[in-house]
UniProtKB/TrEMBL annotation:
InterPro entries: AGP_Transferase (IPR051678). This is Aminoglycoside phosphotransferase domain-containing protein. It comes from the Eukaryota. PANTHER family: AMINOGLYCOSIDE PHOSPHOTRANSFERASE DOMAIN-CONTAINING PROTEIN (PTHR21310:SF37), AMINOGLYCOSIDE PHOSPHOTRANSFERASE-RELATED-RELATED (PTHR21310).
Amino acid sequence: MSSSFQYRNKLPTLQSACEEEGNFLLRVEHQRAAENWTRQLWDQRGSIVDLITEQLSLSKDDACKVLLPQYWPEGKFNVCVLVEVTRQDTTTEKFVFRCPMRHMHAEDQYPGTIDEKMSCEAASYVWMQENCAEIRIPHLYAFGFADGGHFTHTKHMPFYQRIYHNFRRWIYRSLGLPLLSNYIRNLSAPDVGTAYSILEYIGPDMGQMLSITWERHKDDAARQSRLYRGLAHIMLSLARIPQPSIGAYRFDTVNSTITLTNRPLTCSAMVMENSGTPRSIQPRQTYQSVESFTSDMLTMYDEHLLHHPHAVQDEDDARERFTIRMLHRAVSHHFIRRCWRNGPFLLQPTDLHQSNIFVDDAWNVTGMIDLEWMCSLPVDMLSVPHWLTDCNVFDITNEEYDRFDRAREQFLTAMDKEAETMMMEHDIPITQNMRDTWLSKGAWFWACISSLDGWLWIFEDHILTKFSTDKKLVASLKQASALWQQDVESVIKRKVEDGEEYRGKLEALLSSLLRSQ
């Protein structure tokens, strides 16, 4: 029995599983798929060794081996294979062979998504190497695509290729062409049948994940202060250069350049797609206006509500959720400010959490990992991390709201100090803007756009209260849910039937899992 199927070392009850916003059936399916993918990679360890030997230009006297799966770091979207190389002088070094999981990237529904993800992730590394060199990130040695293309950093290629490529980079810069990366095609790398990246293994010399010491030191004021300064520096450094559109950087396999030509690829969007939600934003779709981006994001959440089998509890719950979806779109114009509606936009780390941040013992930030969801987004979407007070974004109410508000202001004070030494290439007053969106409740509007499971409570607790103190407002407007979709009564009936079918399948699954214990 996989521990991820359990809660507090036991299987969830039917009631507790039904109360989850997520799809428990899909979670079990994904866990099994991840275990199967791990076994496949272990079976391919010989091919992985051959590939790494070529990509890292290892000598015949260097010994390369794949460590046992129990030592592989766990990831939600990727399997990270740990590889150890023993040099001929007996020194050892570890590397991470990182492979996206097909099921988590909706590859079967939308072929090419894994390569899209790898293209954006590689481009994020390139962008940070060029523009945020002071931020420590893992070295990206090489990467490859499912279609068979392999790329290697020039420092691991022959000397003459490095000289020629540096000359090309100088030409590109001189002519104002797109940024030419330090990665060049490697025609001799063997195929492994999957997209991958080969990354530096981050060891104790860089510190440790913030999540390891979070519970022990989260209330230490001195450590908090140093952490806030470090996080603020990362956010400001990324936001230092204005971006011309909303989207994500993409690696061009033809000429090794990166351009801001991909859709804004976020974790929430990928979770929706791998759960069966139809794709609302196509891979090459970028935005020059906040309105069009907001409209498509709202549509994506609408589609998820329509296709999630466990989206509603009953008919009344369906009407309430449909009404809130309609109201969310109706009030959006109040939170899209004219000053930034057409840009510029800012590069933002949309998945910055405790396990992506490395710190030393004093909580000085020493680096960050996982650049896979970095996007250029509206200015108003840049916000203080909600987890600073160890609370889910949809639980920041009452006393938790006051706690977070104090931490938020401390964080912005730290950001003010960091901004004094940061050479920005635009005149956007970032910290003042973050204070303004908090006061206007715009921060909560954009949190609704980002939160897959919390939008309902965020809207009720923070956005509705901006317009009305009537706690029965949604109930009195439920008939207006007819404006959300055509023939909404049929939609409600179908969603209730979906929920009943889901509960039947869930009961059967839990019984099966219980018998297998």
